[in-house]
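Priority: medium. Attachment 1 of 2:
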């Protein structure tokens, strides 16, 4: 292949290497210094989807959503200056929730730095310690050894996005003029097939573990926050462990296990209510705890576990310390799918475990029945009934992005087990409300129908995400719980101190969401009954974005949770 422009050659080697490694999506923000790479990525279409997004923060969260949904690295490209700084919140989330992103920030060459050249800041180590790996590339050079260096560096960056654990990699890439693909005196021929031979998407290593337990009496499995690439395989692996040991599975609402009920007959979904009953919290005390993934959100569960002296194992294929309770814990650094057991339970142990399991199941069945009957009979609009209803009416395998603050907690408290294979997504790495619309659109892109559950403040924090509407392929329904403020703060002690509570914590914005949606040409509908919400979610559209606003009373809902949650397990 013939090249007459140095930056064009350099950018071609970079993008062609990524294409052959398996890159499917590049999110591109407009700018001048990134011109060579933008042109090169566009030339790789349709092998690489190139999506232009105006706002860098929104673009970063959209890329995060795409990477969550695909399980593969997504490229995020911007120009020099403060553009890359707007990626920072998404970089943090990618680090904390192990999502593979490849950040390409373009830059001026060294001679144009520290001399007040326009749109220039110090971009080296721009994201601190959050990337898995970060480096500045050499300036483009007409040298086969340097082109080989570029090729190998891109391969390494791709691998470091995924191994030894998924996360973000940052490459800072300087370019000299000319940035456009015009003749600059270059006369270079590259033997493409020879140069890119042997590049391919190679499987990453897998480590299998034998669960090192010798006393298997009276244990529980906690299935925590998880976004596995293969939910059914993940749920089956936990079910196999549960059935072998006769341990109940306490499954977080953000775990796919609640959406594969038939696979997991030992499922416990109401532990947050059960553990509020002092009698039950004592008789259900385990001797072994096996935690899979991150700890569930429930404060009741965390408090209960912190007072238990038992052997604890954490199974997770990252290097994270997932024991926030600082127990005597053994971390097994592998996926649950790679765990095996090499033993047989004694008859006595098996009998004890069955009795313990049956006690959990009996209490679960009664508590679940109480919750279902209570919510079924509520006619007025309350926040807590929304996830309970959604869990029963969404179409099979619907991707569902669940926002932080109260939505994730109500999902944990009330999400009813089902067999709908719903795919829950969330940003529980840093637990912020940044980029919610953009992340949800990234997840929903190329899906016929997806849903997002969010509060009003989180949606308002990312309204620029609606600018992606013209690039978006698929459908997203946003269930907007509008309680005019931060409902999570109503659950905290500061809520009893006003002032300053209402203005500085609840922060009501008094927004007309119908007008807001009209500004972005987004479909809008106010939901005034449960029947109406049910009708809108049972059959989802296949294109566009729509907002279903559900207005609630923030203070009444907080009081309802405080008064009701503990009553569900009293019988």
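Attachment 2 of 2:
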């Amino acid at each position: 292949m013939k090249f007459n422009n140095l930056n064009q050659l350099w950018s071609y080697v970079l993008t062609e290497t990524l294409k052959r490694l398996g890159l499917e999506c590049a999110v591109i923000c407009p700018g001048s210094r990134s011109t060579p790479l933008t042109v090169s990525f566009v030339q790789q279409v349709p092998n690489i989807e190139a999506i232009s997004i105006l706002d860098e923060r929104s673009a970063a969260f959209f890329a995060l959503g795409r990477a969550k949904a695909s399980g593969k690295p997504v490229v995020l490209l911007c120009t020099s200056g403060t553009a890359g700084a707007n990626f920072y919140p998404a970089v943090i989330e990618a680090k904390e929730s192990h999502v593979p992103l490849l950040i390409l920030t373009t830059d001026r060459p060294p001679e144009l730095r520290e001399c007040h050249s326009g749109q220039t800041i110090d971009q080296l180590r721009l994201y601190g310690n959050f990337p898995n790996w970060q480096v500045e590339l050499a300036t483009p050079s007409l040298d086969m050894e340097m082109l080989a260096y570029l090729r190998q560096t891109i391969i390494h960056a791709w691998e470091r996005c995924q191994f030894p654990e998924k996360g973000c990699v940052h490459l800072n890439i300087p370019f000299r003029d000319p940035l456009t693909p015009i003749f600059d005196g270059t006369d270079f021929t590259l033997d493409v097939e020879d140069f890119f031979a042997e590049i391919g998407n190679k499987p990453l290593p897998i480590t299998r573990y034998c669960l090192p337990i010798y006393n298997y009496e009276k244990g529980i499995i906690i299935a925590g926050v998880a976004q596995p690439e293969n939910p059914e395989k993940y749920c089956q692996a936990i079910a196999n462990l549960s059935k072998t040991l006769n341990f109940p599975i306490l499954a977080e609402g953000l775990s796919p296990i609640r959406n594969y009920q038939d696979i997991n007959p030992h499922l416990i979904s109401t532990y947050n209510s059960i553990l509020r009953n002092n009698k039950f919290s004592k008789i259900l005390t385990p001797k072994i705890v096996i935690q899979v993934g991150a700890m569930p959100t429930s404060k009741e569960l965390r408090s209960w576990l912190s007072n238990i002296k038992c052997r604890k194992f954490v199974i997770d294929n990252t290097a994270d310390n997932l024991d926030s309770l600082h127990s005597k814990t053994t971390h097994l650094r592998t996926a649950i799918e790679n765990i095996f057991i090499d033993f047989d339970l004694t008859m006595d142990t098996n009998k004890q475990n069955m009795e313990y399991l049956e006690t959990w199941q009996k209490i679960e069945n009664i508590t679940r029945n109480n919750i279902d009957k209570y919510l079924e009979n509520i006619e007025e609009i309350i926040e807590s009934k929304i996830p309970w209803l959604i869990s029963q009416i969404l179409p099979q395998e619907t991707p569902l992005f669940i926002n932080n603050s109260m939505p994730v907690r109500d999902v944990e408290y009330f999400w009813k087990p089902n067999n709908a294979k719903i795919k829950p997504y969330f940003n529980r790495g840093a637990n912020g409300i940044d980029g919610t619309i953009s992340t949800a659109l990234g997840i929903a892109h190329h899906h016929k129908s997806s849903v997002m559950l969010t509060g009003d403040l989180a949606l308002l924090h990312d309204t620029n995400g609606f600018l992606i509407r013209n690039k978006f392929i698929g459908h997203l329904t946003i269930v907007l719980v509008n309680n005019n403020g931060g409902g999570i703060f109503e659950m905290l002690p500061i809520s009893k101190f006003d002032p300053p509570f209402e203005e500085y914590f609840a922060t009501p914005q008094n927004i007309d969401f119908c007008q807001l949606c009209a500004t972005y040409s987004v479909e809008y509908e106010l939901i005034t009954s449960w029947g109406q919400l049910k009708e809108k979610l049972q059959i989802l559209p296949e294109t566009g974005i729509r907002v279903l606003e559900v207005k609630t009373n923030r203070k009444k809902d907080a009081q309802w949770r405080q008064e009701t949650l503990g009553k569900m397990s009293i019988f």
